[in-house]
Design brief:
- Helix 3 runs antiparallel to helix 4 and helix 5 packs across helix 6.
- This protein has 6 helices and no strands.
- By secondary structure, it is mainly α.
């Protein structure tokens, strides 16, 4: 067996040449952590801006447009209900006109205020349509002064009656 010094001496030239070869080239740069998602900071910020634009909450103008659209749809529904009720009353009155005079309301016993009772739901529908119209105008940006001028009341009265 050779002494330990002889073994170390025989390996020294190999270790010295290997170290010299490694030290003459720059060491490879290794990055730690997870792999990169974007090629650069510029690309990362571009994606961030795109996401912010996509998920940005609605602006006041967009909210007003959406609210106006909803109010207009509600106004249309209320006007359709009023038209249906008025059409039903008109058909009933027309059918009564076509009947012989002895079968008309004035000739037979019954409620005297039948026409008033029939027209009363129309008044309720008309008030609902008016309230929906005022709400739709407010959603579209009309002021209480403008609405009050059309209704021929004071702005305070209009606001008190139709404020939601």
């Amino acid at each position: 067996m050779r002494p330990l010094r002889a073994v170390e001496a025989s390996r020294r030239p190999f270790i010295a040449t290997t170290l010299w070869a490694l030290l003459s080239q720059p060491p490879p740069i290794t990055r730690g952590g997870r792999p990169r998602k974007y090629c650069s900071g510029t690309c990362r910020w571009a994606v961030c801006r795109t996401r912010a634009r996509r998920w940005r909450p609605l602006t006041q103008r967009h909210r007003r447009q959406d609210d106006t659209r909803k109010r207009r749809r509600h106004l249309r529904d209320q006007a359709e209900h009023l038209a249906q009720a008025a059409g039903k009353l008109a058909l009933d009155l027309h059918a009564e006109d076509l009947a012989p005079p002895t079968q008309q309301t004035g000739w037979k016993p019954g409620p005297i205020a039948g026409y008033t009772a029939t027209a009363l739901p129309l008044l309720a529908h008309a008030r609902a349509v008016l309230a929906a119209a005022v709400t739709a105008d407010r959603a579209a940006g009309a002021t209480w002064d403008e609405i009050a001028a059309v209704l021929d009341v004071s702005p305070d009265t209009a606001a008190r009656r139709y404020r939601t």
